[in-house]
Design goal:
By secondary structure, the protein is an alpha+beta fold. The protein contains three helices and eight strands. The protein is 20% helix and 27% strand. The N and C termini lie far apart (35 Å). It binds zinc ion (ZN). The site of zinc ion has 5 residues, from α3.
Length: 183
């Protein structure tokens, strides 16, 4: 199974607002294959040569609902200075979050969103996420901060049908949070 750009649904498709359901563990072969294909898409999309050859839109994460599949499956791959943070999670759940916020200075983007939605998206600066990680074949708790934490929250939002621009203040899109970490 290989995911192509055409497989990804846009926010004009009402399915993007569907709530995703827990998957059964251990993962079925079908769900394993889907989750692995999602991870591979993200990984390949960050390789310039592959992305160009296969017309992949670059991404740091994807949720199954973006393929029209309402299952709690997400893949995230974030290259950062301290190394690559990568997960392919089933049933991810945020179990703790910092009071302090963080946000991307330039705003967020999404494979399912073509229109511009400028503005700050405030996220928790640090989170702990519990879930089953296909990459390590383990039930795990991930402590994430910085860009990785933002990406995880973006993907986990998809499982509730929430898009990044839902978080932008329509009256003051570039509002500041003095306490927040700017990334
Ligand atoms: Zn997204």
């Amino acid at each position: 199974m290989k995911i192509k750009v055409e497989d990804i649904i846009l926010d004009s498709d009402p399915r993007i607002r569907e709530k995703s359901q827990d998957v059964t563990l251990p993962l079925s072969e079908e769900n394993k294959e889907l989750l692995q294909a999602m991870f591979n898409y993200v990984k390949d999309s960050q390789d310039d040569a592959i992305a160009e050859a296969e017309h992949l839109q670059p991404a740091v994460g994807i949720a199954a609902i973006q393929l029209g599949v309402p299952k709690k499956l997400i893949a995230v791959l974030v290259p950062e200075k301290d190394g690559v943070h990568q997960v392919a999670l089933a049933n991810p759940k945020i179990i703790s979050e910092s009071v302090q916020n963080a946000y991307l200075d330039g705003g967020e983007g999404c494979l399912s969103v073509k229109d511009e939605h400028p503005g700050h998206v405030f996220r928790h600066a640090r989170i702990k996420v519990r879930g089953y990680d296909l990459l390590t074949d383990k039930q795990t708790v991930i402590s994430a901060s910085g860009y990785f934490a933002i990406c995880l929250q973006h993907e986990i939002d998809h499982l509730s049908g929430i898009l990044f621009y839902d978080h932008i203040n329509p009256d003051d899109p570039w509002m500041e949070d003095e306490e927040a970490i700017v990334i």
